[in-house]
């Protein structure tokens, strides 16, 4: 199909989508506890007083079950009348069924914020937490860059300030882990200052007969690699416009071509582990811990496992920029939680979200390898956890934490994951890969 035909198809799709959406915009907002699925954001009540009767809340999530269990136990100890039932789902199942879950009459009271929440918030299925943010003082406890990712680009109809549709329970960032002993064997004595230096280190590892970079592209790590490179080649304002669906935004830019070409080039040079496309992220992490590669692309959620297995033999650095003076930019989000508009207990759910910003919760979050919202309230990390904390501090100071690219559209994850696998296998041209992403973006944002 040529590009002219694609443009015509997109325009036609946009026109038909407008026709379908217009009759819906006149519907009223959804109220807490209502079973009706009517569009329009709705805020939490202004009161934060938690009822004294026995309450049960259902919490559905897809990440860090051990951390969630510990957070629930600590919260319930402080609030003996509130019981929280955790409902764990695998990430793929959670994201795939999120819309159905949150629009059903049996929606959980609290749900992990994930791809698709922006649309659910706009349609009134997720409560605007802006009144709680002001009442509880969350802006003082959570970095603005982390809260900004949870606003869905909206203004709160209740407060007039920024809307808020979730609260972080552990911040994240992706980057590069390195095996210090293997790096020394390859003549590498310090983290790279530039992207070119990192490429030289990959070449040095290959020359030393070692596997340079561990990638688990079967699920997420290939995507993290491409996004990490894109963060260094694409201006963050352009990237945010694309992820947030700004009119006229596109991923089909020279920066996207450059990042995609690097993924292919590194594959051609043999820098990845064998069968990277058939290796899951968790398996690439386990292989790295056993010494199978010098470097590993992953997020801070793997830090606890690697610190336990490798002790002081593991370090971490954010993907370096094109210049040594470049800002620190890295993909990251948070294990964040939203409140369903169907909950009958918004005050109790709000109390749990407020607990997530406390020093007690922060220490639990830190102990589980995530970055607490307020690092000054927890014990100073050591080893690889300290490396990650320093990298995250630099990225926050540089306003360089960008969300993951699959947030650009609910169905984008599959396009990204399969597309990066094709880049690694050298089976797709960068321009065609980016065109497939833009197709998905325009199909969604034309609606």
Q: CATH architecture of the largest domain, please?
A: 3-Layer(aba) Sandwich
Q: In whole angstroms, how far apart are the ends? A: 22 Å
Provide the β-strand percentage band. Answer: 5-15%
Could you give the order of strands across the largest sheet? Answer: 3-2-4-12-6
By DSSP, the count of extended strands is 13
Fourth-level CATH superfamily of the largest domain: Periplasmic binding protein-like II
How much helical structure, as a percent, in the residues? 40-55%
Number of domains: 2
Helix run count = 19
Radius of gyration: 22 Å
Per CATH, what is the topology of the largest domain? D-Maltodextrin-Binding Protein, domain 2
Largest sheet: 5 strands, mixed
Protein structure class = alpha/beta
State the low-pLDDT regions, or none.
Answer: 1-37
What is the overall shape?
A: globular
Averaged pLDDT, please?
A: 87
The top level CATH class name of the largest domain: Alpha Beta
Any key phrases for this structure?
447 residues, 4-stranded mixed beta sheet, 2 domains, single chain, disordered N terminus, D-Maltodextrin-Binding Protein, domain 2, alpha/beta, 5-stranded mixed beta sheet, 13 strands, 19 helices, globular
């Amino acid at each position: 199909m040529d590009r002219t035909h694609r443009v015509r198809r997109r325009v036609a799709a946009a026109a038909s989508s407008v026709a379908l959406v217009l009759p819906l915009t006149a519907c009223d907002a959804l109220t807490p506890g209502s079973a009706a699925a009517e569009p329009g954001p709705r805020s939490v009540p202004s009161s934060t007083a938690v009822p004294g009767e026995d309450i049960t809340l259902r919490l559905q999530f897809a990440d860090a079950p051990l951390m969630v269990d510990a957070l629930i136990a600590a919260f319930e100890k402080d609030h003996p009348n509130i019981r929280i039932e955790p409902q764990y789902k695998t990430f793929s199942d959670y994201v795939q069924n999120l819309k159905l879950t949150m629009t059903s009459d049996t929606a959980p009271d609290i749900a992990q914020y994930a791809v698709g929440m922006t649309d659910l918030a706009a349609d009134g299925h997720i409560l605007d937490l802006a009144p709680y943010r002001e009442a509880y003082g969350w802006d003082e406890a959570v970095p603005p860059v982390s809260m900004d990712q949870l606003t869905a680009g909206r203004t709160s109809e209740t407060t007039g300030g920024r809307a808020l549709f979730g609260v972080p329970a552990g911040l994240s960032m992706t980057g590069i882990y390195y095996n210090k002993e293997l790096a020394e064997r390859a003549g590498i004595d310090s983290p790279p200052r530039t992207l070119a230096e990192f490429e030289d280190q990959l070449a040095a590892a290959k020359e030393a007969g070692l596997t340079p970079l561990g990638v688990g592209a079967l699920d997420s790590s290939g995507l993290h690699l491409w996004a990490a490179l894109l963060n260094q080649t694409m201006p963050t304002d352009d990237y945010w416009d694309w992820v947030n669906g700004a009119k006229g935004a596109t991923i089909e830019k020279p920066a996207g071509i450059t990042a995609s070409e690097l993924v292919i080039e590194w594959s051609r040079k043999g820098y990845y582990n064998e069968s990277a496309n058939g290796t899951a992220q968790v398996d690439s992490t386990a292989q790295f811990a056993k010494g199978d590669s010098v470097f590993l692309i992953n997020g801070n959620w793997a830090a606890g496992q690697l610190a336990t297995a490798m002790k002081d033999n593991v370090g971490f650095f954010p993907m370096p920029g094109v210049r040594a003076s470049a800002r620190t930019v890295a993909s990251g989000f948070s294990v964040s939680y939203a409140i369903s508009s169907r909950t009958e207990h918004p005050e109790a759910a709000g109390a749990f979200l407020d607990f997530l910003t406390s020093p007690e919760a922060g220490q639990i979050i830190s102990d589980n390898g995530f970055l607490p919202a307020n690092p000054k309230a927890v014990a100073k990390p050591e080893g690889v956890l300290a490396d990650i904390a320093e990298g995250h501090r630099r990225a926050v100071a540089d306003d360089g934490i960008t969300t993951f690219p699959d947030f650009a559209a609910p169905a984008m994850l599959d396009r990204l994951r399969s597309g990066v696998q094709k880049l690694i296998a050298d089976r797709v041209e960068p321009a065609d890969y980016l065109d497939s992403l833009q197709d998905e973006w325009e199909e969604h944002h034309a609606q």
